[in-house]
Amino acid sequence: xxxxxxxxxxxxxxxxxxxxxxxxxxxxxxxxxxxxxxxxxxxxxxxxxxxxxxxxxxxxxxxxxxxxxxxxxxxxxxxxxxxxxxxxxxxxxxxxxxxxxxxxxxxxxxxxxxxxxxxxxxxxxxxxxxxxxxxxxxxxxxxxxxxxxxxxxxxxxxxxxxxxxxxxxxxxxxxxxxxxxxxxxxxxxxxxxxxxxxxxxxxxxxxxxxxxxxxxxxxxxxxxxxxxxxxxxxxxxxxxxxxxxxxxxxxxxxxxxxxxxxxxxxxxxxxxxxxxxxxxxxxxxxxxxxxxxxxxxxxxxxxxxxxxxxxxxxxxxxxxxxxxxxxxxxxxxxxxxxxxxxxxxxxxxxxxxxxxxxxxxxxxxxxxxxxxxxxxxxxxxxxxxxxxxxxxxxxxxxxxxxxxxxxxxxxxxxxxxxxxxxxxxxxxxxxxxxxxxxxxxxxxxxxxxxxxxxxxxxxxxxxxxxxxxxxxxxxxxxxxxxxxxxxxxxxxxxxxxxxxxxxxxxxxxxxxxxxxxxxxxxxxxxxxxxxxxxxxxx
Length: 538
Fold this sequence. Notes:
The chain is 51% helix and 15% strand.
């Protein structure tokens, strides 16, 4: 395993400005990303009271069915004794979802280790599973590579309701078949059988999307000590009861603070990542596992269909007695995180960094402080086969990302075309046109009105010539298919669907070629949170 750092062109202005410490962003974030901020934030957290004993107990009860390793035990004990945390999270995708899910987890682990050393205090890593999210279409698929192109593999079973990932049951037979197809796409290696078997075993013990996700994540990260909790875990929701009460009581102020801040963010040139409204309650009501987004309307909290309609007193009663019936949205989840966990820093992607930029004043409304924002690691994996191809065609990762591999492919195809055959077909076509024009002219002199038939007959021959031309092109393509497919494979692996690899593929594709120790070996690399893009040669 070899590590390389590269600089890529800016494709997210807010992230670039965040790293450069642009003055324009100061109104939107509490801290800049530096050692002084971590010291200040740590001292702030130590001046506050957090129920870390209760939190540790909840996380322990959540993780016990998954399996608690020695390192997880150490971190649970540290949290119980008041340690602060690095937090990051993600939705419960199939086979852990896109690679950036594990990139976030690795970022959380590395930053917790780094800050433990710098602060000389134990900092624990916590992964917040967004099991309350209900957009199943975002998490019901993954991609593999088939015939040199990304192929979408989908779990097709659908629910008619907007049920949360943590309450959406999975059909074992369909998910098992999906896993079989995915591993077949990966291809057979020395590691395939054991990896496939392990995934099927974890599936057998899983009832929902979140169950399956959590079991796989724990299998990958248990030896690194990663703590996990599902936002929809009932004991955790009950722990949040008093905090839900506070969110309801300050609901209007929170909404106004976010709307005003988002307008300022827009005026600064960074768009409107939330599209917040003054009437949005920024809470969901959960009924039979289905989430209903609440708005304040006519002194009531209700969903858009009017199925749910609660007065403030009723909503406060729910928060106090049945908090598991409430769920946070993109605005209140960071607030809830801050109230329940002593968050030293939150690890997020570019999208999260953008919407957190609308929340600073909402934190203040709640008498809270926004934590440090730590952009997650950005990583591209390159296996040995891909390294060889890149070397053969003298391509770098930045060049592939800028489209050079696709350009070289098009140039190669053009260079191997049989130009003589094309010219001869064009000559035949031209000759036919001339002869048909003469025939049509002659028939006209004979007062034989057959122009449409002559034209139709000519078109028939033109279609046949086009068919012949395409067949010649196909034969040429087949003759050079190996080289063309190599260009396709470079594009598919490094920049699939014109997107970063980390947003498309899952980690098991790379574990299948590298081995089951991929995560441990990645965590042992000298990685650090920075603006650079890491290329890891497997």
